[in-house]
Amino acid sequence: MSISELRAVAEELEEAGYTLEVVHGGRVLLRAGKGARGSLLGRIMPVEVRDPGALLKLLL
Questions:
Q1: Contact at 8 Å (CB) between 30 and 21?
Q2: In whole numbers, what is the pLDDT of the chain averaged over residues?
Q3: pLDDT digits over 39-60, tens only?
Q4: 28-54 burial by CB neighbour count: b if 16+ within 10 A, else e?
Q5: Is the C-alpha dihedral spanning 14, 12, 33, 23 positive or negative?
Q6: Which of 1-10, 11-20, 28-37 has the lowest mean pLDDT?
Q7: 19-24 and 27-33 as β-strands: parallel, antiparallel, unpaired?
Q8: pTM (2 decimals)?
Q9: How many angstroms separate the most distant Cα atoms in the chain?
Q10: Helix or strand or coil: residue 18?
């Protein structure tokens, strides 16, 4: 998934009032949509990366 695709999905979730969370090991790694706040990406798109290291390990 490219950044532009992630942005489009996150914006659609936000417009619909939904939040998507990626949870692994009981920790929220990524939040997208309405509830995403407080990160560098949150300024340009509704995506919040809570634990970038753990997210990368999960993806690789």
A1: yes
A2: 86
A3: 666 567 888 888 889 988 988 8
A4: ebbbbbbbbeeeebeeebbbbbbbeeb
A5: positive
A6: 1-10
A7: antiparallel
A8: 0.77
A9: 30
A10: coil
